[in-house]
Write a structure and sequence with these properties.
Bound molecules: nicotinamide-adenine-dinucleotide
Number of domains: 1
Helix content: 40-55%
Number of helices: 9
Radius of gyration: 19 Å
CATH architecture: 3-Layer(aba) Sandwich
CATH superfamily: NAD(P)-binding Rossmann-like Domain
Strand order of the largest sheet: 3-2-1-4-5-6-7
Strand content: 5-15%
Structural class: alpha/beta
Oligomer: single chain
Order of helices and strands: EHEHEHEHEHEHHEHH
CATH topology: Rossmann fold
Largest sheet: 7 strands, parallel
Shape: globular
Distance between the termini: 58 Å
């Protein structure tokens, strides 16, 4: 039987792929043989990732400038990928932002920014990819990055609402585009120590770990299998699905109050070592504990306030 997970010759794009989860997705797809376009705003970082993929996996890869919140930028970027690769098979829409803040005094400006990138941006990308797949007559795979925040109320109104909307947008597009052999699915990570979370203090990381049945904080490689699965022939009959990849974290609503401790599967020292390795892979400078407090001081500040109370 052929290898259902083989992506050799497939042409993919990943948005927000200069670092974080998007870079992990790009690595995973390239490791399975796909040629991968790196769509992001930072040319230096994007070109560096493309060069790494070419050297490590021998695939084709290039940086393409794209601001996902701007319609003309998205349409031009997707057209440029098709021009360069000759076709498109896989669109991974991953770029996202979170702007912290209390819900009562949250500004409309911040709300619009978050919705503009996380929801409108993801829809613009999916629309551009869907149009290409329909025109090509080939079908295709669209994979959106949602979040466990679509299911649990853990961040704030703009972020959680945007991610819940991504899940429903995914389902609606799947229903609409099944007729064109287009699979539309989403992946929902939990807390992954990407740049978005590199400012999370050790004490909070420990709490996350204690509330995660699989016993460690989520790592970039925990998303490799899920993204390859949804990009490959192995998932040809899967559509409209939100693949939650959280180590069981969201199962835990009852575990903590009932005193059901989760035995950590790795020691805090091993965890720190792994986190430093993960952040190095993601291109994030960090201290000896795998923390970069400067990157998102507001995240560190919010968690510190939580710890103090
Ligand atoms: N880190 C987590 O714990 C976590 C958990 C669940 C979901 N997510 C989601 O995963 C995705 C990736 O996040 P991450 O954790 O890697 O964070 P990140 O900040 O490292 O990555 C986000 C990427 O999106 C890019 N981006 C932001 N606005 C953009 C725009 N307008 N146009 C183009 N690119 C833009 C950023 O430059 C960055 O490369 C996001 O959608 C995020 O919401 C993250």
């Amino acid at each position: 039987m052929k290898n259902l997970f083989d992506l050799t010759g497939r042409k993919a794009l990943v948005t927000g792929a200069s670092g974080g989860i998007g870079k992990g997705y790009a690595y995973a797809l390239a490791s399975a043989g796909a040629d991968v376009a790196i769509l992001c705003r930072n040319a230096d970082a994007g070109e560096k990732v493309a060069a790494e993929l070419k050297e490590t996996f021998g695939v084709d890869s290039f940086f393409q400038s794209c601001d996902v919140s701007v319609e003309s930028s998205v349409d031009a970027a997707v057209a440029a990928v098709v021009e360069r690769f000759g076709k498109l098979d896989i669109g991974v829409n991953n770029a996202g932002i979170g702007i912290l803040g209390g819900d009562a005094d949250y500004s409309l400006d911040d709300w619009n920014k978050v919705i503009g990138v996380n929801l409108t941006g993801m829809w613009l990308c999916a629309r551009a990819e869907g149009r290409v797949f329909i025109k090509q007559g080939t079908g295709g795979k669209i994979i959106n990055t949602a979040s466990m925040s679509a299911r649990i109320s853990n961040c704030n109104v703009s972020y959680n609402a945007s991610k819940a909307a991504v899940v429903e947008m995914t389902r609606m597009l799947a229903a609409e585009w099944g007729a064109f052999n287009i699979n539309v699915n989403s992946i929902s990570p939990s807390y992954l120590l990407s740049p978005m979370h590199a400012s999370t203090p050790l004490e909070i990381r420990q709490k996350i770990r204690e509330l995660t049945p699989l016993g460690h904080v989520e790592r970039p490689e925990d998303l490799y299998g899920p993204v390859i699965f949804l990009a490959s022939d192995a998932s040809n009959y899967v559509t409209g699905h939100d693949l939650l990849v959280d180590g069981g974290h969201t199962l835990n609503a009852w575990m903590a109050p009932l005193g059901r401790a989760v035995p950590p599967r790795v020691s805090p020292e091993e965890e720190s070592k792994q986190l430093k390795k993960d952040l190095a892979m993601l291109g994030v400078p960090c201290d000896e504990n795998g923390i970069n407090f400067d990157l998102h001081p507001e995240i560190a500040g919010a968690y510190r306030a939580m710890l103090d109370n």
